[in-house]
Amino acid sequence: MTQISSSNTLSLDVAKTRPLFPLVAGLSLALLVLAGLSLTLGKVEVPLVEAARGIFAKDPPLATILLVEIRLPRLILALLVGGTLGLCGATLQGLLRNPLAAPGLIGVSSSAALGAVLMLYFGLAQSFPLALPIGGITGALIVVLLIYGIAGRDSSVLTLILAGVAISSLAAALTSLALNLAPSPYAAYEIVFWLLGSLADRSFDHVALVAPLMAVGWLMLLSTGRALDALSLGEETAATLGFHLQRVRFAAIVGTALAVGAAVSVTGGIAFIGLVVPHLLRPLVGHQPSRLLGVSALGGAVLLLAGDIAVRLLSPGLELKLGVLTAIIGAPFFLYLILKTRREMR
Amino acid sequence: MSLIEGRALSVRFGDLAVLDGVDFAANPGELIGLIGENGAGKTTLLRVLADLQAPGGGEVRFRGQAVGGIPRQAYAREMAYLPQGAESHWPLEVRHLVALGRLPHRNPWQPLAKEDFERIATVLRWTDTAHLANRTVTTLSGGERVRVMLARALAADPKLLLADEPVASLDPFHQLQIMELLRDIARQGACVLVVLHDLTHAARFCDRLLLLHEGNVMADGAPASVLTPQNLEKAFAISAQYGERDGAMYLLPWQRLRLCEDESGGHP
Asked: Which ipTM score applies to this complex?
């Protein structure tokens, strides 16, 4: 009878939380070091101090132009795209309660790629340089509308995934069709090369185009944190904890479409970042989905930046494509993770 | 006015009427056992009361207000639902999992406060899981996990607790302990509706029993008036051995009164 008399002794350490600070500090430090490297490394040596001093000069030296016009946008895009992929991966894995979920799952990546490929195919990309990202973003947005049209507003997560798979396949098929019908081998080559994914030769125009879309997407994704925590207990329990699952799904999927659509449309396909980063960081935040969001964004930025530096170091001549590198390293690594988790589960 | 009230609730899955005009009302301070054969509609009734499923007919009122009209978070502060076989999809630490029960009381960006931690510590102690607080939930046994999930449901300090078979997988010690806990929580003013299969628990601990049969309320009242030999025969097709200890009734299901289909005289 007396078991629910409440004595006020906080006898146990329920209040102790594993501090996020060391993890965030470590990732931030890595980010700073890599950012410095990214600005310095390249075919031409850029002395950072001298180049920075030249920013306010009337007649900026070559080093400054190189830094501001080429290296800096590349760095910023790497951070934005890497952060987007990490954040989207963490959100979708939380939403679907599945560590294998990735931004590509709901068909956004492949349709953004298709949008950009069509711009290349019809030759619009030559006439104005922002045609590619605009095509990609349009493709991603159309897909969101399609997914909602097909799956309906009351659909289950499974329906959303299946709709995503169907749309991905269709987008891939149409991309193949564009390759098939390409007017010249050169045009086909151009499409394939773009699809491989790269951060080279991007400008501040690209940054300005995608940053606002990404920002909106990020806010939508970050707003789902608490609901993702509740979803650890399943959809029904999350609903009885006061969350509107339709709204949560809307925020996660539309947020992903905006952010990843924008990312893919400037970089092409960059695989595995969104899959691997949340997977790696999850144990370090006690598997709590809401705490994973921010650190995954940070981790994604670090990894993509490291990859971009690696491609520049590995192949200074004909540049290795970033998307190729992430896939070559990411896929076996992911397989290793699966085998490791399987052993732990047993 | 009742705390929660269901009027003429009906739910159909295709041609099958799972609930067929169920009337039900419950007051604060009551521990109500929900009993009935498999498929009688017990879980469906809980889900309808938890506003997880809209009834095809009838309506649920909480404090006189239709539940559909109550904002989700407001209802979540008053009502907790413990589903059968609740699982965690991630290997969370027990204390973090129990802390999820505090979500309805927190604003979107508000961190856990002192009263949250106190409540978490309290419900861990109530469910005898304080020693598991730092364990990963996936490493717990089935019975330990059920108690942790009950702690999660109690963490919100609900005025209405809907628990689907919370004691079925517990050891005898914890079956008694959790039944006593549920009774004590009701004594403190909450309304507890719990699905049970152990008729002795139902008889001994509950203030009231609701016996469902084929989607209808067959009996609703004090345990002794519900657990009659006639009702047991009609609802469960069993006969039971009745007894009494310390003034409380117990009963032991003893004999089946019908054969299963395809069962021609005994098991193979």
From this structure: 0.91
